[in-house]
Amino acid sequence: MKTNNTNNLPENHRIYADKYFTRTRQILEAEGLNPIVSMNVFARGNGKLEGIDEAIEVVEKYSDIRKVGGELWVAKSEVYTNKQPLMIIKAPAQNIVELETMYLGVLSAAISKVNNKPTPTADFIKEKFEKLKDIYEGKSMIYFGARHYHWSLDEMIGKAALDGGAVATSTDIGSLSRGQEGTGTMPHFLILCMAYKYGRDVGTLKAAEAFDKYIDPKIKRITLVDTFNKELTDSLMVAKYFGQRYNMQRIDTCGENIGEFGSLYNQEKTKDPSFEVGTGVTLELARNLRSNLINNGYGQYTDTVLSSNFGDEKKAEAFMKADAQFKKETGYSLFTTVGIGEVTEATFCTGDIFEINGKPFSKTGREITNVNYSLLEKVI
Asked: Which of 80, 256, 299, 303 gives the lowest tally of CB atoms within 10 Å of its CB?
């Protein structure tokens, strides 16, 4: 297995990284917070496995994982199975946080290609965003999909997304055609590190406070509130911190969870094809979260960002219909912004922290109690 052929990688990885990862490193450095984190990288479904070599190269080129005593394990098999580890990365948080976009992208691209899924083209992406712009009339679309595709395509895809109606992209290279920097919110990675230090009950709040303290005031304050599946509780806690200063709440509830105080779908914990109830980001969750903020006096000071499969045109239509009804009933928008990443048929890899300093610690719904290392090969 190759582990050191880094000649084809760009010199600067940061322009290809989701902006919220580079800002997370800035915050962690300012906080003096650098715990040992263990990342699980996986894909859903089953198929042929490719891309491991280049993913290893990304980690080796842009981190000092060997010098700091980190570990890198990769799958032995030539196939992948649903949610089984493709890679396990263990290293100080600051050393690897900026790399997630690139290593997920090279894995997703290689797996998609070997399993005969098409490579996106500029025309396809532009047309997709044009369709979504027509549906999301009056809403802002941010392209969040850099981690889903190979880093070498990000400039092209980002430009196409902007040409199609997106207002921004999550990476500097994706925003280059407009002379902009990447934009974004905050990742679960930051919240988990803050929660490990301060406790899960206040982890989201502490991440919001740290972002507010260390990041340029010109940058919008957008707090991710689903990490611990306490979307309503944590969003209200953050709103109280900001008070009458405008801020935004982002919900990205994973498919393993039902939003706080939410309903089962047909008495089961599963997705509802109408998007009304069940797991993930649902209409019920969006309404409950927004109503909770409005009822507590924060309606005019907050807005909501939605992410997780909002490139699905049926989902877009359902949420826009609900937005119109919600605004009619309350006078407030249900949401103002969507983060859009999954815009093609592809296999999308995911990375999650599952341990911090050797102890189980993860976002709710992505816990791992026992990694089967016999299926993995240690390369570092």
From this structure: 256
DSSP letters, 236-283, are HHHHHHHTTS-EEEEE---TT-BPTT---BTTBSSB-TTSSSBBBS-H
Domain count, the chain: 2
Find how far residue 205's CA is from the centre of its chain: 18
In this structure, are 170 and 303 located in the same domain? yes
Q: Looking at the chain, list the stretches that DSSP marks H as alpha helix, in order from N- to C-terminal side.
A: 19-31, 52-62, 93-96, 100-114, 122-135, 154-164, 188-198, 203-214, 231-242, 283-295, 313-330
C-alpha–C-alpha distance, residues 141 and 340, integer Å = 7
Q: What is the pLDDT of residues 39-72, one digit of tens each?
A: 999 999 999 999 999 999 999 999 999 999 999 9
Give the whole-angstrom CA distance, residue 365 versus residue 372.
19
| 340's tokens | 């859009």
Structure tokens at 95: 């050393």
Interval 225-255: pLDDT, tens: 999 999 999 999 999 999 999 999 999 999 9
Q: Are strands 140-143 and 168-169 parallel, antiparallel or unpaired?
A: parallel
Is 3 part of any domain? no
Do 305 and 369 lie in a common domain?
A: no
Residue closest to 28 by CA, chosen among 107, 121, 94, 117: 94
In the chain, the amino acid numbered 27 is I
Is 330 within 8 Å of 288 (Cβ atoms)? no
For residue 123, being part of any structural domain is answered with no
Report whether pLDDT(346) > 70: yes
Q: How far apart are CA 117 and CA 137, in angstroms?
A: 30
Question: Do residues 323 and 246 both lie within one domain?
Answer: yes
User: Could you please report the per-residue DSSP string of 339-362?
Assistant: EE---SS---EEEEEEEETTEE--
Categorize the per-residue pLDDT at 369 as very low, low, confident or very high, splitting at 50, 70 and 90: confident
Specify if 25 maps to a domain.
Answer: yes
- The answer to whether 317 and 4 are in contact (CB under 8 A) is no
